[in-house]
Amino acid sequence: MTSKKSLKPFLRALNGETQSVPPIWLMRQAGRYLPEYREVRASANGFLDLCYSPEKACEVTLQPIRRYGFDAAILFSDILVIPHALQQKVWFVEGEGPKLEPLKDAGDLSILKPDAVLGHLQPVFETVAKLNAALPIECALIGFAGAPWTIATYMIEGGSSRDFAKTKLWSYRDPDGFQRLIDIVVEATASYLIAQIDAGAQALQLFDSWAGALDEHGFRRWSIAPAKRIVDIVKSRHPDVPIIGFPRGAGPAYIDYAAETGVDAVSLDQGVPVAWAAQALDKSVTLQGNLDPMALLAGGEQLDRAVDHIIDGFASRPHVFNLGHGIIKETPPEHVTRLVERVRRSRS
Ligand SMILES: Cc1c2[nH]c(c1CCC(=O)O)Cc1[nH]c(c(CCC(=O)O)c1C)Cc1[nH]c(c(CCC(=O)O)c1C)Cc1[nH]c(c(C)c1CCC(=O)O)C2
Fold first, then answer.
1. pLDDT, tens digit (0-9, with 9 covering 90-100), for 6-29
2. What's 208's domain CATH number?
3. Residues that bind substrate, according to the entry (predicted)?
4. pTM, 2 dp
5. C-beta of 227 in contact with ligand 1 (< 6 A)
6. Atom of ligand 1 lying closest to residue 60 CA
7. Is residue 168 in contact with ligand 1, taking CB distance under 6 Å?
8. Which of 144, 168, 206, 294 makes the best surface tag, with the fewest CB within 10 Å?
9. How far apart are CA 306 and CA 18, in angstroms?
């Protein structure tokens, strides 16, 4: 039997424990700001090949753990492996980001092959199993997926987008057809996350990176409702594995997300005021965040001040220190060293 005390610090925070020094990990902690990542990346046959090569994916996941001793490792993969596993065409262009052959309307949904998903993703589960064996005992392993709304934006826009016009217009003009796409992604994502836990993931994060683009009604239907269904399905199989929700840009709607989806924690973007979140969000929910990635890139005393503000503001609640969004690739690795030392300075 594992007592609460013997849990890793990161899992203790997700379990609702307030700690004098919060555990820390960073979104996109494995990536191009690290020279050792760039070296492995150059040896792969493109970015997706790196995601599907268990040995290499395991190596790049471990790199930031070796360098900084973070409290959690996040599986190295990408949210776009789900459209790819559904047999949509997905590729990455150097310097431009992801490209997909876009779905135009509900008539294109027959392209998607839900039965192919788990077979396609076997290499990812192999990476999870390797990591589970390789990670230091005090370091937790996070599995993840994109939330259906965010995944749908890539599937419909064919890549990154500024205004999500095609996706939003589809959702307004043909909500039933759009719901069918969301349902396909919900089912694929829930089985993908369950398989990650079966392979050894100890916590999950659901990235709804573009939740902030939705209006009030859209947020309920396309962000909260699908997240709740995924949480329900995953928890029916693995009730004890904590889930972090990240409805980036949700603003005051973070309150509804935390209360209504069933997640154990929410990750806050840097736009959320610390004092507001600390008092307004359900006390049973662990808060993660929310340093501005640009403050980390800038470094220096302003970084220290921003870190202290977050640590102090969340001191009376269970908290996981993180960024408000992914680390920027120009960030000097020494700034991350400074950040980790600052967060842990009271740890003896
Ligand atoms: C929207 C999104 C994506 N991917 C992800 C999100 C959600 C989080 C967020 O909002 O940032 C999530 C993601 N992407 C990656 C991880 C791995 C684990 C980690 O956080 O260290 C995770 C958790 C690796 C990656 N995913 C990507 C890279 C860089 C690609 C490379 O090495 O060539 C990495 C390390 C590529 C990617 N993947 C995606 C984009 C838009 C891009 C291009 C942008 C960029 O180049 O930074 C889609």
1. 699 999 999 999 999 999 999 999
2. 3.20.20.210
3. 28-32, 78, 154, 209, 325
4. 0.97
5. no
6. 21
7. no
8. 294
9. 20
